[in-house]
Every structure is written in C-alpha cells, then in structure tokens.
Design brief:
Blueprint lengths: L1 E7 L9 E6 L6 E10 L4 H20 L6 H25 L7 E2 L1 E7 L3 E6 L3 E6 L2 E4 L6 H7 L5 H4 L21 E5 L6 E5 L1 H4 L4 H10 L3 H14 L6 E7 L1
Antiparallel strand pairs: 1-11, 2-3, 3-4, 3-5, 5-6, 6-9, 7-8, 7-10, 10-11
Helix pairs in contact: 1-2, 6-7
Length: 244
C-alpha cells in the first residue's frame, strides 16, 4: 500500500481550514486515513479540522491492525469519529474564540481483505477500480437532500446557491452519526478522499482521468490540485489518494 496527500489554501482564501492525516505502518498491510474541512470564524475552522483529524487518527491508528475483524474495524471507526466529535465539541465550549466551530470528516481504514469508509459532511470518498470511479460517501448537505426529494436535479445541485450548506458536521452537537460503508477492495484499487474545494471544480470523470494518467499517487494528487488551481480555486483544496 502507498498513499499521498496534498492541500492548498486556493486562489482566494488566505487561510487553509482543510486538514488530512494518514498512516501506513512498516508492515504495509493496513492504511488509515482521514480528511477534514473545517468551518468557523477567525481561525476556528482550522482548529476544528486539525483537532478532528488528530483525534480520529489517535484512536483509529492506535487501535487497528491488519488482524482486526470486520466488526472490530467498523466499531473502531465509529468510535474514532465519536472521539473526534467530542474533542471538537468540548473545545468549542471551552474556548470562546472557537464557539460554533465544526468540521466535515471523511475517513477510511483498509487492508487487503476489507475496507470501511466513514463520512460526516460533504467531503467525499471515491473508489477507483479499473476504469471506473464511484462515489462511496454520501454528502450530508442541503442540496443532496433536495436531489433525493426530487426538488432539484443533480445538474442543478452543482450551481445551487445553497450548495455549501451541510446538514451534519463534527463538533456541532454532543453526538454525531457517521455513515459507514463497507467494501471488499482488490489489489490495485485506489481510494481518493477530497474536500469540496476539489469536487466542486473537478468532475468525477476528470478525477478518474487524472489518476489513471499518473504514474504515482503523488503525481495524481498534484495533477488534481493543479486542475483546481487553474480553475480559480475559490476554496481550500485537499486530496488524498491511497493505492491498495
């Protein structure tokens, strides 16, 4: 397994409120990764995303190994999300400057036999298998709910004025529910995590093309970031890619 991540504040925003972490032990038989996109005034958004990512990794990476059962992997993933949530939530009450802060969170833990993805908010997880890309996570956003209700089309959602309103986030309430997805990866499959700073500007088909054209995961990450920057990057842009 190998992984690489990259983040950039973009062309408009001065501060980068995105954060990512990943861990592959020397054995190389398990990969744990998380990506967070913070929200909040002043520097609160960056505090939230960094705290969420660090808390998630502290619990997940220290609790899992390749021998973990499927049920253990799922339980630990849920626990890690809950741990991240309470850490951010507590900080928002302890520090006036951080009041109301929160973060998205999308993460995975993968071995050769199984993979679990967790998400809260609208940062995304994709699976690239062969010449096909599939969005694994489900956006927790107002426009996603409107699409599901048939009130707007997926095409209209792309330019909807309330596109950035999320309906679920880390640290906003005392508890949070993460969606959990289970997959059975094949050797050579690729997992891609990204913030909406990338997915708002680069289509799924373009993501697939950039990844397939790249020789290494690092090259793929840089190509995707460069594409977003070339298109103006009004938001922070983060992408993390792991090859299983």
């Amino acid at each position: 397994m190998k992984a690489f991540g990259i983040t950039d504040s973009g062309k408009v925003r001065k501060e980068n409120q995105d954060c990512f972490r990943f861990d592959i032990p020397e054995t190389g038989d398990i990969c744990t990764a998380v990506l967070c996109d913070g929200m909040g005034g002043a520097q609160a958004g960056s505090v939230a995303s960094r705290m969420a990512a660090d808390a998630f990794m502290f619990h997940a990476a220290n609790s899992l190994d390749a021998a973990s059962s499927a049920q253990d992997m799922k339980n630990i993933l849920v626990e890690a999300v809950n741990y991240a949530n309470i850490k951010v939530y507590d900080r928002s009450f302890a520090d006036f400057a951080c009041m109301g802060m929160g973060s998205t969170l999308v993460a995975f833990v993968a071995t050769e036999k199984r993979c679990f993805v967790a998400n809260v908010g609208d940062s995304r997880a994709y699976l690239i298998a062969g010449n096909k890309i599939s969005q694994i996570s489900r956006d927790h956003s107002l426009v996603e709910e409107l699409v599901e209700q048939g009130k707007i089309t997926p095409e209209e959602a792309q330019t909807h004025p309330q596109k950035n309103i999320i309906t679920r986030a880390i640290g906003v309430e005392a508890s949070v529910h993460a969606d959990i997805f289970k997959m059975k990866p094949q050797s050579g499959d690729i997992l891609l995590l990204c913030s909406d700073g990338l997915s708002n500007l680069v289509s799924d088909a373009e993501m697939l093309e950039k990844v397939k054209d790249a020789a290494e995961v690092e090259d793929a990450c840089r190509a995707l970031l460069d594409t977003a920057l070339e298109r103006g990057a009004p938001d922070n842009v983060t992408v993390l890619i792991a090859e299983l």
